[in-house]
Specification:
Elements lengths: L1 H14 L3 H12 L12 E3 L2 E3 L2 H26 L9 H8 L14 H10 L13 H6 L1 H16 L1
Antiparallel strand pairs: 1-2
Helix pairs in contact: 1-2, 5-7
Length: about 160
């Protein structure tokens, strides 16, 4: 069945005049991006039929909470130490034979920040902050000094 699908899609792409559009149409079809989904009307749990959406959501929540609790219980049984009464730092200190070395972070220079900004690819798309890299590169002379200050303060 999979091989037949592959051959069919390859044939459609080969015959297409607009190959990019055909490829995207195929990808959207396979990932069900065309919006056609089957709606589940009822859910059978332990011979009880649930049709209310709120009850269905509650049943899923109950199932996954119980699954997480039982998984955690199994993990605690398998562990060598009972960590419920200790802090993560206490656990780490007792888990390793040698103490952790001190980390000395050096302050960065404005030139280093400018170098990093220059190395960014000039794209119109933005990251989590919503600022495109093109804007960052254009404004690098204005933002490199404050960025350096922020980085150095966060490292000290």
């Amino acid at each position: 069945m999979k091989e037949a699908k592959k051959l069919n899609y390859a044939d459609n792409i080969k015959k297409s005049l607009n190959k990019k559009k055909t490829i995207w149409d195929t990808a959207n079809l396979e990932t069900n991006k065309n919006g056609t989904t089957e709606k589940i009307n009822t859910l059978n749990i332990e011979e009880n039929s649930i049709s209310d959406s709120q009850e269905t959501a509650n049943a899923f929540n109950k199932y996954f909470l119980n699954a997480a609790k039982s998984n955690n219980t199994k993990q605690n049984e398998l562990s060598f130490h009972n960590l419920d009464n200790t802090t993560p730092l206490h656990y780490l200190m007792h888990s390793f034979k040698n103490p952790f070395p001190n980390i000395n972070l050096k302050c960065i220079l404005t030139k280093e920040v400018e170098k990093v900004i220059k190395s960014l690819k000039p794209k119109n798309s933005s990251g989590y902050d919503g600022i495109p890299t093109k804007v960052i590169k254009i404004s690098s002379t204005f933002i490199s000094s404050p960025s350096t200050h922020i980085c150095n303060k966060s490292l000290s």
